[in-house]
Amino acid sequence: MKAGAPSDRTGSKGSPACVARLSKARRSGFALIEALAAFLILTLVLGSLLQGVGGGARNESRGDFLLRATRQGRSQLEALGVAAPLIVGETSGRYADGLLWSLAIGPCRSAPDLGGLGETIGCFVGLTIRRPGDVAPGDILTLRTVKIDASRPQR
Predict the structure, then answer these.
(1) Angle (nearest 5°) at CA 134 between 72 and 56
(2) DSSP 3-63
(3) How far apart are CA 127 and CA 111, in angstroms?
(4) Model pTM score
(5) Going by C-beta distance under 8 Å and a sequence separation of 6 or more, which residues neighbour residue 60?
(6) CA nearest 69: which of 126, 133, 125, 129?
(7) pLDDT, tens digit, for every residue of 79-88?
(8) Residue 77: how many CA atoms within 13 Å on its side-chain side?
């Protein structure tokens, strides 16, 4: 064998077996750019997932507020004008669970006698319920109705 001629032994540098082993060794791991791309994709997926969970928690909180506010507001409006006469003006207060309310009773108007039942007096009523502190637009509930004032003497 001549000196400098390639040999077919498995350990020498130019042999096909050595080249195959080197290329397999280079391909067996991940490149840095591949690992960074995988972390970027994972970050985007987890960010979207957390955003969805956070949105769900906000919606649950808003739904709870609307449920409590609707129940308390309807109860307050049903009792309005029954125990005491309706008085035009604004009042406000706080429910036991901390929600703030503001009641506005507008001008009362009378309707003519309908079929001998006497004059009917109706008052425009607006009740606004909100959370304490800074409120987002979804944290305010407004209920409006017309209340028939039965406590006023009819002619």
Answers:
(1) 70
(2) TT-----TTSTTSHHHHHHHHHHHHSS--HHHHHHHHHHHHHHHHHHHHHHHHHHHHHHHH
(3) 23
(4) 0.59
(5) none
(6) 129
(7) 888 877 788 8
(8) 25
